[in-house]
TrEMBL record:
It comes from the Bacteria. This is MBL fold metallo-hydrolase. SUPFAM superfamilies: Metallo-hydrolase/oxidoreductase (SSF56281). InterPro entries: RibonucZ/Hydroxyglut_hydro.
Length: 261
């Protein structure tokens, strides 16, 4: 089986599985403001990188601008198929994408041999819950799970084991907003449920610079207080694989029989 991951910083990923190239939550150009005024918070890339080429699918997990980032999406061919939660639909329609598939929780989408199922993701306010995704390749027997805020569907155990999990491993608490990333708080439960071989951290500060009034708060966060010490206590702990932004990494997995879906 062949699985390659490229971390494009923050929560932006290129997944290569079964010769399919899937671009997740792309932040490729321009600043990131999270929908806030730039004077309050803005992230800027320290290392510009080219947009990935030959993309087979754009996969969006949330409708918020740090996951559905209009300046980045405008750099991509609007003919590329795009998969998103209902919260992102209006934005991507305005950007002119022609092949949009909206996935509600529990629904599936086929990309070649890969089955993509939407799971419950991060809660945004009391009435909205975004998407996580499970990607399964029956041909290779490989499976991958992605959710960027650490809020996981209780039904994920139905997919166990999942080979690779892309998840935060730290918590982020913001005054007035509460816990916006629950990687450490929820992570051990996730690992127990899906028994991954490899955990790849997301929502990490890569090669970026934060400016604005909230920047000091973010710079004071203890991102070193992670899930890793708890994982080390498990009988068969997963490998935690820290990637370098921009570097393509082959993910080595133990051989498994092909999935039967």
């Amino acid at each position: 089986m062949s699985l390659y991951l490229t971390w494009l910083d923050l929560n932006s990923w290129l997944v290569e599985l079964d010769n399919q190239r899937i671009l997740i939550d792309p932040w490729l150009v321009g600043p990131m403001t999270f929908g806030l005024p730039a004077w309050l918070l803005q992230l800027t890339r320290l290392t510009p990188r080219p947009c990935p080429e030959s993309i087979d699918l754009i996969l969006l997990s949330q409708g918020l601008p740090d996951h559905t980032h209009p300046p980045s999406l405008q750099q991509l061919d609007p003919q590329i198929p795009l998969l998103c939660p209902p919260s992102a639909l209006e934005t991507v329609q305005k950007l002119g994408f022609h092949q949009i598939s909206v996935l509600h929780h529990g629904e599936t989408y086929a990309l070649g041999n890969i089955q993509i199922q939407a799971t419950l993701g991060s809660p945004i306010g009391p009435l909205r819950q975004e998407n996580g995704y499970v990607l399964q390749s029956p041909a290779s027997g490989c499976s991958l799970y992605y959710e960027p805020h650490g809020y996981h569907d209780p039904a994920l155990s139905n997919f166990a084991p999942i080979d690779v999990v892309i998840t935060p491993i730290s918590d982020v608490h913001v005054p007035l907003l509460g816990t916006i990333i629950a990687g450490k708080t929820q992570g051990l439960e996730l690992v127990t449920a899906v028994q991954p071989q490899v955990i790849v951290p997301t929502a990490q500060p890569g090669e970026i610079q934060a400016t604005g009034l909230l920047a000091r708060l973010l710079q004071g966060l203890d991102m070193g207080d992670t899930l890793e010490p708890d994982l080390a206590q498990l009988p068969n702990p997963p490998q935690v694989l820290h990637l370098t932004p921009g570097q393509r990494q082959e993910i080595a997995l133990r051989h498994k029989p092909a999935l039967s879906l």
